[in-house]
Each structure stands twice: as C-alpha cells, then as structure tokens.
Amino acid sequence: MRFTGLRLIAVAGALAACAGSLAAAAPAAGQPSVDLGVRLNQVQVIGTHNSYHRELTWAEKVEQTKTDQNAWNLWYSHASLPVQFASESVRQIELDVMPDSDAGGLYTHPLVRTDAGLGPLTDPDMAKPGIKIMHWADHDYNNSCATLVKCLSQTKGWSDAHPGHVPIVVLIELKQTDPAMEARGGPKSPPWDTKRFADLDSEIRSVIPTNQLITPDTIRRPGLTLEQSVLRYGWPTLAQSRGKFLFLMDNKDPQQQAPYLDGRPSLQGRVLFTDSAPGRADAAFLEQNDPTGPNTAHIQDWVRRGYFVRTRADEPFDAASTGSTARLQAALASGAQVVSTDFPIAGLSARYGSDYVAPLPGRVPARCDPVSAPRFCAYQPLDLAG
C-alpha cells in the first residue's frame, strides 16, 4: 500500500495526538500509572515469617534452653514493621495472634521470665483487653508490637504515607497456649470460637477501613461461590488494589476454621481468606509451604488457575546454614504470589554461619509473577511506594 503525502500527514497527526493523549494520561511522580489490567494475583512479593519477632534477654534465653534444646533458633529479631516495608522491600507480614481474656492481662507473667527471676512484662498493652501478638506463650513472647491493633496501626501508618504500594498481605496465624506450659502453671488461652473470631474481624476493621480491605466479599459474584468467582472472574486489578490490605488465615485445620466458616461457606462478611483446598466454596487462597520437587509444578498449576498462593523460601533453615538458594529459587519459580522468608536482608543468617538472604530479583518490593503475569505486566509500574 502506498501513502500519499496527505495520508502521511494524517497518520503523523494521529500518532502525535495519540502520543499527546498518553503523555496527558501519564502519572505524576509517585502516582499510580494508567491501569493496564495487571491483577493483584499476577504480582509476586517477598514476605517475612514471624514478622513481629524479637529475641529475649540473655537471662530469659538461659531459662529457655533448660526446657528447649533448640531454643537458639528463637534468638533472632526482625526490624519493626514500618522499617521492613521501607528498607527491606517486604510486602507481606505474618502475625501470630493469641486470644486474651475479656479483662486482658492473661499473658503478663510468662513462665520463662518468672524462672529467670524477672517481674511481669512491663508493656502496658499486655495488661489491656484485646488480641495479643506472640510466638509461643510463656516461652517466646517478645515482639515489636504487643497487640494486633498496634501492629496494624503501625502498618496502616506506613501505608497511609505511601499509598502507591502493592497490597500488603497480612498472614494471620491462630495460636493458643501450649498444654505443657499450662501443666507447669501457665495460663490457658480461650478457644478460637465464634466470639473470638468476631473479635478478630472487629479488631482488624477498627484499624483498617472497609475501603482499604480486599475481602472475600470484594471477590465473590452474585449466585457464585468464592471459588467460582475467583476462577471465573479473577482478582481485582493492581490499580484497584494499591494502598490496600489482604488478610489470610495461616491455619489449615478444618476444625479450627469451622467457627469462622459456620453459616458463611464462601466467607460472607468475613475479613480473612481461609487456607483452603480446590473444590471448596471458600477456595481462593491456598498454601504449600514446601515449593521443592513436584510441589513446584503443583503450585504453578494453582497459580495459573487463578488461586492466590503462599510458600516459604527457607523452612527448615537448611538454606541459611548452607547458603544454598535452591529452595528460594524453587519458591520464586513456583509463581506463588507470596514467598515468605526469615532472611529478607543480609546479616540475619549470620547466626547460622552464612550470608544467605532471600530477596526478589533486583531487591524490589514486587515483580511480575513469573507464572501468571501477562506480557504487558512488564510495562506496568508495580509498587509506587516511593
């Protein structure tokens, strides 16, 4: 086909107009870009395991070792949550939640601390009602934020100051007291029943407003289960999800989940996505913590189908002790949208005698998912936290 001079002028004019439109639509610095349709499940992020964790004092550590020969594995500390977001490119955190008594103060006298000849915990938040954050009541209880509300308030504070971030994924692990510690005179936590689950949702909503939450109700379509909705229609776009939060339940036990799902098979009205299995009405989030061997292909299949998946880069700590990145590479290649690590930055593995670290390639907060992302994802700016 030949173009006349007039046609060439017309084509040039159209191209100039198109370029001008794109320039006009281009975002200002730090603002979200034009939405190219990349979805939140087509992005991969690095998260931290036991994100709140702080090691105990030396006197407490001595007492830990008397009843736990592997206590040294607990002697690590993460930076505060805002620092992890700002300086460690973390976009997923894990919080271990313990139900307190209605009056509060159930966990203020840990046995290890008592054995060390120390007084009660001095953080005033521990004496108040509300869900507490700790790894192991009476044995490994130090933290950078003692309550669920405080941890989420710190997280939201950073989010509000950096609204262009990809969604922050909050993995919630339900914990209860250890019977062995109860037998030694430690407190017994209330069960995770209907009331405690209502408290959990309520405390989350008291900090994170509805317009910043991605919930099962966000995904589910009329007349369809949650699983049918996510597999047929997918997740929200990244542009719709920036500055928001996605809460996931880390516990897989159906009996433990039962009160949360009771009368709500597709998690109607709930905040958390349950760790489910294909074929269940609530199936949108799946966990496979071991990404190696045949599990790599297994996870890839889930991701291609549209599920949101979490895996772990270094559990057990063999990778950290040897410096091998084989498991990390398997986790990244699996396409799991969340890859959790205990070692997001250099230095944390030094106690194992290695320099192992598990960032995303390029040490960025988010990258296009290697399994599910469309090609045009490469042209979509992802995390715009600045």
From TrEMBL:
CDD domains per the UniProt record, alphabetical: PI-PLCc_SaPLC1_like (cd08589)
Signal sequence range: 1-23
A Pfam cross-reference name: PI-PLC-C1
Protein name: Phosphatidylinositol-specific phospholipase C1-like protein
Keywords recorded for this protein, A-Z: Signal
Provenance organism: Fodinicola feengrottensis
